[in-house]
Design goal:
Beta-lactamase, 3-stranded antiparallel β-sheet, 413 residues, 6-stranded antiparallel β-sheet, 11 helices, OB fold (Dihydrolipoamide Acetyltransferase, E2P), alpha+beta
Length: 413
């Protein structure tokens, strides 16, 4: 990797599955080896698995588009025909210059595939024919009313010259440099995914958002998000250490502290007393608060720290419901200790760094810490398997037929 390679994003290849992990590596190398990167480049061996990264990126993008398809159409587009103060450019020569000169990372190499989602630049609108010409690098497409997807508006009413819009490619004609496309839209929400090898700490896949070219913020490493009920396994692990067992009953009685009174997801203020494993599988909020009250806030906070969560758990009972903000990378690393029999391995993206002459500058040294006993860790795995079984909060997650354990988590906007 050379420093100059990433100095100007418009000239780098179109958005790919590798953008987020490569950017994480680049930032690390630039900070640690600035002179070497600038002068001669480095050879880096990453932990990313090619197929896993492709599948992770595909899953994130398809999932976000699926969710966005249930939301109202927004008609939001970036307009390249405005100045730095967001005022429209009116000079005809400047308009044409900008339209012809503009390049987008999605257009790198003009290598397009059917089913791909890419950005297109609206070049002209024919009000009489109700057609819009859209450019994709050296390719063009004529968009008519039947190509407007779920927008349901006429092309002349929806699109303007200078608009950047997302389209799905339906057909590619390399000889004529023509595409057939359908109007889509970039999802408004974001998502992230981290896939870790629990035994080695290697980050096998990392996706930080829908599209790196659109938004370079890495939600997997930079985003501090409330965890919701995904925080509960740490409270349950503390309860197991305290001496409880999965079949012991947990209270579902109403609990109130001052003006605060927790509710379950369905709004109820109580539920029957149930075994601890059932309370976790059904994600009862009231049971989690009772557990935290029993084991003590200090013991639970210490458990959370041991699992590698750096943001301290607030010393209040609502913390049982996941008010603590945690980056995804830390949550994935913390969860990895459960299948790894209570041992957490520090996550990493780089195996080895060499200079241009082949000299090893650094090589990953495995860093581990025992966060809980093997009994507690494997008992938690057993309990968390019930989450994805019928009666749990995520039975559909088990559709793949592979052994699976986990925990759902929901928070307000």
């Amino acid at each position: 990797i050379k420093l100059a390679d990433s100095a100007y994003y418009r000239d780098v290849p179109k958005s790919t599955a590798w953008d987020y992990p490569v950017e994480e590596i680049r930032k690390y190398l630039e900070e640690k080896y600035t002179t070497r990167v600038a002068q001669g480049g480095l050879k880096v061996y990453s932990t990313i698995n090619v197929e896993a990264q492709k599948l992770a990126t595909k899953a994130i993008r398809e999932g976000l588009r699926r969710y966005d398809s249930t939301r109202p159409w927004r008609s939001e587009y970036q307009n390249i025909l405005v100045d730095e103060n967001n005022n429209p450019i009116t000079d005809p020569k400047e308009i044409q210059r900008r339209l012809q000169a503009y390049k987008h990372p999605d257009w790198y190499g003009d290598d397009y595939e059917k089913g791909e989602f890419i950005k297109g630049l609206v070049m002209s609108v024919d009000n009489q024919k109700d057609e819009v010409v859209v450019r994709f690098g050296r390719y063009t497409a004529v968009v008519t009313e039947k190509d407007m997807g779920r927008c349901k508006k006429k092309p002349k009413d929806e699109l303007r010259p200078g608009y950047l819009a997302e389209f799905e490619i339906k057909e590619v004609d390399p000889a004529e440099k023509r595409l057939k496309v359908t109007l889509s839209q970039v999802p408004e929400v974001q998502a992230a995914l981290i896939c870790l090898n629990a035994k080695t700490g290697e980050i096998v896949a990392m996706v930080g958002g829908y599209d790196f070219a659109t938004n370079k913020f890495n939600n997997a490493t930079q985003g501090m998000r409330q965890t919701g009920s995904a925080f509960k396994p740490f409270i349950y692990a503390a309860a197991l250490e305290w001496g409880m067992t999965p079949d012991m009953l947990v209270s579902g009685a109403p609990i109130k502290r001052g003006y605060w009174q927790p509710k379950n997801y369905d709004g109820s203020l109580s539920h029957p007393n149930v075994p601890m494993r059932v309370a976790l599988a059904k994600s009862y909020n009231i049971a989690a608060v009772h557990l935290l009250d029993q084991v003590g806030i200090q013991a639970a906070a210490q458990m959370v720290r041991r699992f590698g969560i750096t943001n301290p758990m607030a010393p209040y009972l609502p913390s049982a419901l996941g008010a603590t903000e945690v980056p995804l990378i830390e949550m994935a690393s913390a969860y990895s200790a459960f299948p790894n029999r209570g041992v957490r391995v520090e996550p990493h993206l780089i195996r080895k760094v060499l200079d241009r002459d082949g000299k090893v500058l650094e090589e990953w040294q495995k860093t581990t810490s025992r966060v809980t006993s093997e009994y507690v860790a494997l008992t938690m795995v057993d309990m968390m398997q019930d989450v994805v079984k019928p009666g749990g909060t995520a039975p559909n997650a088990n559709a793949g037929g592979h052994p699976l354990a986990g925990k759902t988590g929901t928070v307000n906007d």
